[in-house]
Amino acid sequence: MFDTERDSAASRFAQLGLMAIETQWLANFSSVCTRRAYAADVRDFAMFSGLQTQSELLQVARSHVLAWRHHLQAQGLSPSTQRRKLAALSSLLEHLVDEQLISTNPARGVRRPRLESHEGKTPALSLAQAQALLEAPDAHTLKGVRDRAILAVMLLGGLRREEVVMGCSGV
Prior knowledge:
Layout: H1 2-19, H2 21-26, H3 32-49, H4 54-57, H5 62-74, H6 79-98, H7 127-135, H8 142-157, H9 161-167
Helix pairs in contact: 3-6, 5-6, 7-8
């Protein structure tokens, strides 16, 4: 009877081991949103590639990853979405390397779309525009003095309109 229980436990353990690769990998992420997005991304890759079993996942090659990247681009997905999807797949494949189920990560070295930098592209006021804005409220009224003070803090602190409104909600 002891052998039967041990065989049954070993069988259940083997089944869990086969089914739990994605679950183990996803457990590494603390964010529920990340887990949900990454799981969807990997399912998307599996559907695109026709993968149905774990053994098929272990046979993924760099050409599969490149073909999927091309497919993502052809779908017109934003560069950030493409990057996330490729990052999810690469992370899963890296987990398989860590678990010694594959020798190398076929997604390693596959270039991801560049993200456009928004640095330096924020529209800014010129010095003359800022000065005109500060001088717009009437300096001879209490409301005008208040508005000038708010504008000065906004301009000097680099605050957005929403940040100023939230900070002044009691005014």
